[in-house]
Amino acid sequence: MKRSWKRESLLAGLLIVLLATVGYGTLLRAGEIPYSAHSDIIAQHLGTKTVLFRSLQEGHGVPFWRDDMFAGYPALTNPQALYTYPLHFLFYFLPPEDALGWTIWLHLVAMAAAFYVVGHVLGLGMPGKLFMAVSALFSFKLVMAVYAGWLPHLAGIALFPFLFAALFYAVAHPGHKAALTLSAAGALCLHTGHLQYGYYSALFLSAYVLARAVVWVRDREWRMLQRAASCLSIATLLSLGLAAYLLVPLISDVPLMSRQQASYSFFLANHSLRIPHLLTLFYPEAFGTPLDGSYVEMWEDVAYFGVLQLSLAIAGLVWGWRREYTRYLAIAFCFSVILTFDAPVLRVAYWLVPGFGLFRCPSRFLFLTSFFGIALGGIGVQEMLARLQRRSVRPWVAPVAVGLVLLVISAEGLYYARRYVRTVPKTEVLTRPDYESQIRQDKDVFRVAPLRRSTLTYGFAALLGVQLVTGYDSFNFAHYRSYLELVRGGHLGQKKAFVWADLTGIARNDLLDIANVKYVVSGAPLRGFGDRFEEVRDWANQPVFILYEGMTRQHVYLYRNKTWLPRAFWIRKVIQTADESEMSAQMELQNLRDEAVILNGLRGSVMSDVGSGDHVNVRESFGGFLRVGTESARNRFLVMSEVWHPGWQLYVDGKRTAFYRTDLALMGAWIPGGKHEVTLSFRPLHWSVSVAMSAASCGIFLLLLCFQVVRRS
Predict the structure, then answer these.
(1) Taking a C-beta distance cutoff of 8 angstroms, is the pair 575, 598 a contact?
(2) Would you state the pLDDT for residue 258?
(3) Confidence bin at 27 (pLDDT 50/70/90)
(4) CA count, 13 A, side-chain hemisphere, 491
(5) SS3 283
(6) H helix or E strand, kind and range, residue 555
(7) For 568-682, CATH number?
(8) Distance CA 668, CA 700 (A)
(9) Cβ distance 532 to 561 under 8 Å?
(10) Quick one: which of 558, 479, 34 has its CA closest to 261?
(11) 322: buried, middle or exposed (CB in 10 Å: 19+, 13-18, 0-12)?
(12) Which of the given ranges, 100-104, 295-299, 354-358, 491-495, has the highest pLDDT on average?
């Protein structure tokens, strides 16, 4: 039986690889890059992977901090990074633009394999498992995720079915093997970074476990209940432990994130469904397509996973009602659709379920809808074949019927794959602007401020080697958003979550100065700033990628900020504040070129006059590290233009020294008189503890694995 299963799995794997190559072979073309006008790969993720590749090439290892956007923010523990996610291994060895196509292709194959494994756990035969694998491979939702450039999303979308397979197996056969399998699947899903799909899966799986527990209690199967509880507890703890080095710092950062200020409308993000959206269950382009701009962001709201698949799912529900998993899959299918509507059940979940409101776009439940529908379709295929066999039809009818089903699914999938998944030569996308060389000639350590996001593509900042004060990322800091709001408008408004951090104007030049901004890139001449900005040069016809518009060209003006300040500098006067609200109020009142507002629990002003011989020399700077030499006659206050985070560590001549949150989003410290070397380095919060937890969990996992191997042999 095992040999037969292995042989069938090998043949299925070869078929999946063949179909993936035929359907998505364009992704593997050398010298080309996946592209669409709506691609987050170009707008964001290309830069994220460039930071990793460049840090490794420069010998700095996996980066804890990145400085290409937002004036700096965490790298490794950012859910969008996926620096230690196994299926992104190619980014360690190849430039990101060369690794992208192969990485996406690997995830398509992985998703098909995951559905095949789920089919096996559901007890389906080869036809049902192949149906599930091919349906997953050519799922319209998956095709649209590739079109939208959802690199972190793809990891979660492709691998969450493994979590279902592992838990179904663990509940049916609790024991050491099941615990190890479930812990591996859970840890892998926790490494996918974009945790939304794993979180949603956990909600549905919790409901399944609860239902099974009720049945065991009703039937007085106490031993089964005890074994399952032990198995699931061990697997859960091991999964969390194996990913602790990512989860503990991330959870510690949650209070700092602007997501904490999210509203219900931010959570909906205009992507809760209405009744007419159900038409997309039958035809994906019922309301239009992003290809012609008639329906942008359809990748969020379309429910389509195939008319044939939907028909077979209904057949599976009717014919296979007595099967073990059918009723659960049917209820889960319906409930996953209900949760996409702005209805009372969604509002209750938002307010009462822990962590539910940290995600957004409830329409993403539709990825689970596709999963449940395809699983029901696999049951439908098996039930259809069983009925054909009972009717004693000719032997060739059943395989021909299955072949036709797979052929129709593949043909439709190939059509949509060719329609939406395209690549273009790298030179068309990664064209470098003329002003890059002008900026690179400047050997100072500085930042660049683009006016409006269309001026400089945020995802290209790392490629160009520039550090921006603006950026695009879902996981960003609330205090830095407030800082940019002051730069842009001169006052603080209502606190809220944000994804894009743009500068549409400059109301506070002093905040631009202390943010180490030496250059401003603009799409139009700057007016109304006197002689603060010196025009370096302007260039016509410069390449830029504008999300939802695509690659285009525009006129670009480069200005030098005459009053910019270096990455670290002395200040003349320190204003002490007791809390964040007082600090914010002082920020609106003071000119911060010569004064600093610090949060230290005190009130009042302290002078920090700079003598003629006092100076600061920036000696080394890269992501998460700053080294400066200082000289002063007396005790002075040093402002460091790095974004404040409690994970920073400050050393003066090798001795750990306290620092203060300064000017709302920066850092500062008192430095003794004389000559000193000041070093600032970043480590994720609770890093040593979380790494120790992961190492211990890994050791326990390996011991249990060895025990299982010895036991079997």
Answers:
(1) yes
(2) 87
(3) very high
(4) 2
(5) coil
(6) strand 550-561
(7) 2.60.40
(8) 43
(9) yes
(10) 479
(11) exposed
(12) 100-104
Q: What mean pLDDT comes out for the span 302-311?
A: 95
Distance in angstroms (rounded) separating the CA atoms of residues 228 and 213: 9
pLDDT for position 494:
79
Q: Which residue has the higher pLDDT, 169 or 396?
A: 169
For residue 151, CA distances in Å to 214, 589, 638 come to 39, 43, 40
Degrees, nearest 5: CA angle 331-264-459: 100
What six digits make up the tokens of 237?
């703890």
Task: Give the β-pairing of 636-640 and 666-671.
Answer: antiparallel
Lookup result for tokens 């001026």: 455
**Model pLDDT, residue 195:** 87
Task: Give per-residue pLDDT as tens, 89-98.
Answer: 999 999 999 9
Q: How far apart are CA 118 and CA 123, in angstroms?
A: 9
Please report, for the chain, the start and end positions of each structural domain, with discontinuous segments joined by +: 2-30+77-425, 431-561, 568-682
User: What pLDDT does residue 309 have?
Assistant: 95
Nearest to 101 by CA among 156, 44, 154: 154
Q: Which pLDDT score is estimated for 575?
A: 93
The position carrying tokens 């500085």 is: 446
* Cα 233 from Cα 512, distance rounded (Å): 51
- Phi and psi at 58, nearest 5°, equal -85, 0
* All residues at 6 or more sequence positions from 497 whose CB lies less than 8 Å from its CB, including other chains: 258, 259, 260, 261, 262, 263, 266
Give dist(CA 355, CA 349) in Å, integer.
Answer: 10
pLDDT value of residue 8: 83
Is the predicted pLDDT of residue 1 greater than 70, yes or no? Answer: no
Report whether 70 contacts 470 (CB < 8 A): yes
Q: What is the DSSP string of 614-675?
A: -EEEEEEEETTEEEEEEEESS-EEEEE-S---TTEEEEETTEEE--EEETTTEEEEEE-SEE
CA atoms within 13 A on the CB side of 170: 32
Distance from C-alpha of 394 to C-alpha of 343, rounded to nearest angstrom:
50
Compute the distance between CA of residue 525 and CA of residue 516 in angstroms, rounded to an integer.
Answer: 21
d(CA 240, CA 248): 9
Cβ atoms within 10 Å, residue 262: 18
- The first and second tokens of residue 600, run together, are 């230290």
Burial zone of 368 (CB within 10 Å; 0-12 exposed, 13-18 middle, 19+ buried): buried
- 81 touches 52 (CB < 8 A): yes
Q: Is the confidence at residue 144, as pLDDT, over 70? A: yes
- 355: confidence class by pLDDT, cuts 50, 70, 90: confident
215: phi > 0 → left, psi -120 to 50 → alpha, else beta; which?
A: alpha
Exposure string over 90-116, b if 16+ CB within 10 A, otherwise e: bbeeebbbbbbbebbbbbbbbbbbbbb
For range 555-584, the mean pLDDT: 93
| Pair of tokens at residue 180 | 């190890």
Dist CA 50 CA 466 (whole Å): 12
Distance CA 679, CA 682 (A): 10
CA dihedral 441, 447, 451, 452 (to 10 degrees): 110
Structure tokens at 661: 């949150």
pLDDT tens column, 474-524: 888 999 999 999 999 888 877 788 888 899 889 999 999 999 999 999 998
- Average of per-residue pLDDT across 558-568: 94
The first and second tokens of residue 378, run together, are: 């696999």
CA distance 604 to 576: 5
Name every residue whose Cβ is closer than 8 Å to that of residue 286 and which is 6 or more positions away in sequence: 279, 280
Residue with tokens 């200082």: 630
Q: Which two tokens stand for residue 11?
A: 């043949």
CA distance 476 to 498: 8
Q: Please give the pLDDT value at position 493.
A: 79
**HEC string of 12-46?**
HHHHHHHHHHHHHHHHHCCCEEECCCCCHHHHHHH
